[in-house]
Amino acid sequence: MRALPDATVSRPLRIAVVASARYPIRQPFPGGLEAHTWQLAHQLRGRGHRVQVFAGPGSDVGLGVRELPIRPPISDRARRDVSMPPESFLSEHHAYLTLMLELADNTEGYDLVHNNSLHYLPVAMAPSLPMPVVTTLHTPPTPWLESAVRARPSCPVQFAAVSRFTAAQWSESVPGARVVHNGVDTAFWMPGPGGGVPVWSGRIVAEKGPEDAILAARRAGTGLRLAGPIPDADYFRERVEPLLGDGVDHVGHLDHGELVELVGSAAVAVVSPCWDEPYGLVVAEALACGTPVAGYARGALPELLDSRCGVLAAPGDIDGLAVAITAAARLDRGEARRRAERVCSIEAMVDGYEDLYLDLAV
């Protein structure tokens, strides 16, 4: 563990990390949130901290996960109530309610809780806990989470935001969020040779804009390889699958080792969100592989890229994105890698969280 500023807090911390109950924390990751949680837990352990991850069933056993209880003990009579919420809502509610009540007893002696979920209960119930709570803001304001924040103006939760853009979105209700950029392991995401067909990676859903990426790549005449899970089979079948073929392929949901090889072999990474990405982990992964980025100038992308490693088009401008793909292919791959090392390395991310923990745990 790196040297700490005060000998009184140089001991390893016991940290409870609250993760997603909806998706397992394991490769191939369902999304950036799960990848972030996995990396954070491993890196904190590597620095000597004692980390307990609370996550959904099926998570990586190497994390030493304690599974969240997602099957609420609801009677058949209760289920027949006309106000019965959707099963998925009730499952998450029960999982986090049970966990927060357990943490309120703190029989394990945790020094702090890092809430890395998107659920409102870890924020709403934070005052019942005897230890500090850190919540990372991974998304724009959502009704349930914002309600929990605003219900307690003096809520004893320290907030971190994954980008300056996200911090600004939350500034009305969370004026003091500390920015800690997400990071990737630059010792794992290593530079590749480049020069190959451009790549698009991520969850294949409408808000990620795979259709725009395909159309732009066709206009640029480069072809495209898409990699990622298909959480919405209807969307993929109706909107994406008809656009495949003639140099555009879906190569599947790859694990990180396969993604490193794919992204590192591409001339360009295409990032085409149709919403304001709070961060965009695929940008950091591409830069670490030395692959310049062509994308839309929205969300946190302008914060992560500069003119030496990326070319941005106006949001929704498919012709502009096609031009960006061609231009980005001419950028220096070494500059892309250096940008990743400076701005979005896992070391910088964990440094930021560790400093935040130590401010709270003294």
From TrEMBL:
**SUPFAM superfamilies reported in the protein's UniProt record:** UDP-Glycosyltransferase/glycogen phosphorylase (SSF53756)
Q: Which InterPro entries match?
A: Glyco_trans_1, Glyco_trans_4-like_N
Q: Where are the transmembrane segments?
A: none
Which keywords fit this entry according to its UniProt record?
Answer: Glycosyltransferase, Transferase
Q: Name one GO molecular function term.
A: glycosyltransferase activity
Q: Which residues form the Glycosyl transferase family domain?
A: 201-337
Q: Organism's domain of life?
A: Bacteria
Does the keyword section mention Protein biosynthesis?
no
Domain Glycosyltransferase subfamily 4-like N-terminal residues, every copy: 30-187
Keyword Transferase attributed? yes
Q: What is this protein called?
A: Glycosyltransferase family 4 protein
Q: Which organism is it from?
A: Pseudonocardia bannensis
